[in-house]
């Protein structure tokens, strides 16, 4: 069961009491002494902060402006998605638990934050040659390369959760380049399994090569069903997945972009996709999905 921030704070205080008692620290009684001076209070806060820092680093309570590392924020009460966490002041990049009881990786810094990452490809360390069930439920590690899972992405982008729309952002680095480029889509949704996780996507902008145009980049895959090597749902006469690395994707006939493709040389792919994510639309804000 996830802990609330109040419960976490109480736990820290208990740990602090145990720590100070074990070390013979004389300030252990200060917490229950209402007559202490302001200077003593400051010293107490400094000691408590130092202990929290020692125990949890920069991650508790996942509100730090500094994002030098990823944090495990799963002890925080689950919320609807990464955008809701951001709107409640949780600004750390890291792993959070959403209301579907699933762990997701939230990017709270890229383009104003609130992004739920559902695909990360960076060095070829994870094998994306997976079957239908693996792509359905997800695979890999949230702190490394992974596919979040078609089921949870469907749950987070379906109209009942994202009544306006979800936005998709793709950040990538071209081979031999240091600058990140991006493509952003105004509408992003994945259907349920009965629809074969049909992709709905439109409204592209950005500075990534071929990121604009009615048949360019991911728009070419609009209304396509998801395919894996054991489920052929593409429009080609052959089987796109088996011809292109046995990876899963919304193949058309076959593709204009293939972000799950295995790098030929680890870390040397022509288009290195770093982050792919989405963000829910909420009134005038987008629900971000970052890929």
Structural notes for this entry:
With 291 residues, the protein is of the alpha+beta class. It has a single domain, classed as Gamma Fibrinogen, chain A, domain 1 (Gamma Fibrinogen, Chain A, domain 1), CATH 3.90.215. It has six helices and twelve strands. The chain has helices spanning 5-23, 38-56, 82-87, 132-137, 150-157, 240-243; strands spanning 71-72, 94-97, 103-107, 115-117, 119-120, 139-140, 146-147, 166-174, 180-190, 199-206, 271-282, 285-290. Strands 1, 2, 3, 4, 8, 9, 10, 11 and 12 form a nine-stranded mixed sheet that branches. Strands 5-7-6 form a three-stranded antiparallel sheet. A hairpin with a 5-residue loop joins strand 6 and strand 7 (146-147). It is elongated, with a radius of gyration of 23 Å. Residues 18-33, 265-276 and 281-289 have low confidence and may be disordered.
The helix content, as a percent range, equals 10-25%
Q: H/E order of the elements? A: HHEHEEEEHEEHEEEHEE
CATH architecture: Alpha-Beta Complex
Give a short account of the largest sheet: 9 strands, mixed
CATH class, named Alpha Beta
C-alpha-based Rg, rounded:
23 Å
Number of domains: 1
- The shape, in one word, is elongated
The number of distinct β-strands equals 12
Instruction: Enter the CATH topology name.
Output: Gamma Fibrinogen, Chain A, domain 1
Q: Please count the helical segments.
A: 6
Structural classification: alpha+beta
Strand content: 15-25%
InterPro entries: FIB_ANG-like, Fibrinogen-like_C, Fibrinogen_a/b/g_C_1, Fibrinogen_a/b/g_C_dom
Protein name: Fibrinogen C-terminal domain-containing protein
Keywords: Coiled coil, Disulfide bond, Glycoprotein, Secreted, Signal
Subcellular location: Secreted
């Amino acid at each position: 069961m996830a802990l609330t921030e109040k419960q976490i704070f109480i736990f820290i205080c208990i740990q602090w009491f145990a720590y100070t008692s074990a070390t013979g620290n004389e300030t252990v009684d200060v917490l229950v002494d209402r007559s202490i001076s302001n200077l003593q209070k400051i010293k107490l806060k400094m000691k408590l902060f130092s202990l929290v820092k020692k125990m949890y680093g920069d991650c508790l309570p996942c509100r730090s402006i500094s994002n030098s590392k990823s944090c495990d924020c799963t002890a925080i009460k689950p919320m609807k998605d990464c955008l809701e966490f951001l709107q409640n002041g949780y600004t750390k990049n890291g792993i959070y638990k959403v209301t579907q009881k699933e762990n997701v990786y939230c990017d709270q810094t890229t383009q104003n934050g609130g992004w739920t990452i559902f695909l990360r490809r960076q060095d070829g360390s994870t094998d994306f040659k997976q079957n239908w069930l693996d792509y359905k439920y997800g695979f890999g590690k949230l702190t490394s390369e992974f596919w979040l899972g078609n089921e949870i992405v469907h749950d987070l982008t379906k109209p009942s959760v994202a009544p306006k729309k979800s936005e998709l952002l793709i950040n990538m680095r071209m081979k031999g380049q240091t600058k990140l480029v991006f493509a952003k889509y105004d509408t992003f949704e994945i259907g349920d399994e009965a629809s074969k996780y049909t992709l709905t996507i439109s409204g592209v902008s950005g500075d990534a090569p071929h990121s604009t145009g009615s048949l360019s980049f991911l728009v070419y895959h609009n209304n396509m069903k998801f395919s894996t090597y054991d489920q052929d749902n593409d429009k080609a006469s052959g089987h796109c997945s088996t011809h292109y690395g046995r990876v899963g994707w919304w193949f058309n006939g076959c593709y204009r972009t293939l972000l799950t493709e295995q790098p030929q040389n680890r870390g040397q792919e022509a288009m290195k996709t770093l982050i792919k994510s989405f963000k829910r639309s909420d009134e005038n804000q987008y629900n971000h999905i970052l890929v």
